[in-house]
Amino acid sequence: MVILGIDPGLAHTGWGIVEERCGDVRCRAYGCIETSAGSDLAARLRRIANELTAVVDRYHPQEAAVEGIYFGANVRSAIPTAHARGAALVACSLCSVEVGEYTPMQIKQAVVGTGSADKAQVTYMVRTLLHLDHDPKPDHAADALACAVCHAHLRRTQALTNGAYAQQKGNPYA
């Protein structure tokens, strides 16, 4: 299974391609789409969508994973990210690639084991899990690879349990 991970951002949209085979996840490619602050919004979003479409055309992922938006204290910075995320979702939709969406906490939990991991821990685990001999740069690409790894792990868990774990878990206090 080939998976495209996307870390959306208006100035920098990271992308990463991983391939999962029998539980082993390997990196195939990664990069970052940069847009200029001097360009108008529509041109920046078009560039993000066009470049992600080119990535899909080149690597043929069956599924994609997109990081959700963390609003935190600065809602103003979340709006441009939301625009970039929308461009990424449209690009995936136009290419008929199914998309999974994950919060930053879910990604950190799946990759590092704790939802409060910092960027250095995420980068280290991405490097380790993908058997890389270097840290993926820039950070946006590392985050995109982490998103793809998260999707691969959660997809495999669901396949192994056929969703039974979530169904059986239920309410322990009932």
Task: Provide an overview of this structure.
- It is a single chain.
- With 174 residues, this protein is of the alpha/beta class.
- 50% of the residues lie in helices and 21% in strands.
- It has a five-stranded mixed β-sheet.
- Strand 2 (12-21) and strand 3 form a beta hairpin.
- Helix 1 (41-59) packs across helix 2, helix 3 (104-111) crosses helix 5 and helix 4 crosses helix 5 (139-161).
- The longest helix is centred in the last third of the chain and has 23 residues, at 139-161.
- It is globular.
Overall radius of gyration: 16 Å
Flag low-confidence runs: 165-174
Main sheet strand line-up: 3-2-1-4-5
Number of helices: 6
**Helix proportion:** 40-55%
Shape estimate: globular
Q: What structural category characterises the helix and strand content?
A: alpha/beta
N- to C-terminal separation?
A: 38 Å
Mean pLDDT: 90
H/E element sequence: EEEHEHEHHHH
Largest sheet: 5 strands, mixed
Number of strands: 5
Q: Roughly what fraction of the amino acids lie in strands?
A: 15-25%
Condensed summary:
With 174 residues, the protein is α/β, with parallel strands linked by helices. 50% of the residues lie in helices and 21% in strands.
Write the layout of secondary structure elements.
Blueprint: E1 2-7, E2 12-21, E3 24-34, H1 41-59, E4 63-67, H2 75-94, E5 98-102, H3 104-111, H4 119-129, H5 139-161, H6 164-169
Parallel strand pairs: 1-4, 4-5
Antiparallel strand pairs: 1-2, 2-3
Helix pairs in contact: 1-2, 3-5, 4-5
